[in-house]
Amino acid sequence: MIETLVPVKLVVRVPCAIIEHHGKILAGQRSPMLSFPLKWEFPGGKQEENETDEETLAREIQEELGVEIRIIEKLPVTVKDQGWREIILVPFVCALQTENITLTEHEQIVWLEPDDLPSLDWTEGDLGIIQSYYQYLAVKK
Q1: Which has the least CB within 10 A, 42, 60, 71, 83?
Q2: What is the rounded CA–CA span in Å between residue 85 and residue 141?
Q3: d(CA 127, CA 40)
Q4: Is residue 90 in some structural domain?
Q5: Phi/psi of residue 4, each to 5°?
């Protein structure tokens, strides 16, 4: 019998935060050294083994922005299939618990009105999150 090797697709789960503060939303510009250089994203990061989505998000936001957040609501997952890997973005609407932001990974951040979110050059996966966020806002009103 001949064995064939089937490549295993890497699946990466990435909780991310739509941080609301005084009616505005935080967007982070990716470092030029990372994949999707200088694209905009909602901050967050890869889930580690045995972490919940919420634990990952709290850790990543503390590492990337130096702040604590309060999770308000989980939004629908967005899946981005890149062929060799699948990225599962798990967005949460959040509020700041502490406000002194220190950037450790992002090139820069901006605070935008929700209607102005499409004005940035977002990663493809984050574009799906923006649509979910708009649906969340429409129901919330």
Answers
A1: 83
A2: 37
A3: 10
A4: no
A5: -110, 140
Which residues lie closer than 8 Å to 116 by C-beta, 6 or more apart? none
Please check whether residue 5 lies inside any domain of the structure. Answer: no
pLDDT digits (tens, 9 = 90+) for 9-38: 888 999 999 999 999 999 999 999 988 899
CATH number at residue 122: 3.90.79.10
Query: What's the domain count of the chain?
Result: 1
- What pLDDT, in 10s, does the model give residues 82-141? 888 899 999 999 999 999 999 999 999 999 999 999 999 999 999 999 999 999 999 986
- Find the radius of gyration of the CA atoms of the chain: 16
H helices of the chain, in order, are 53-65, 124-140
Spatial contact of 135 and 51, defined as CB atoms under 8 Å apart:
no
The parent domain of residue 107 ranges over 10-84+98-140
Say if 93 falls within a structural domain: no
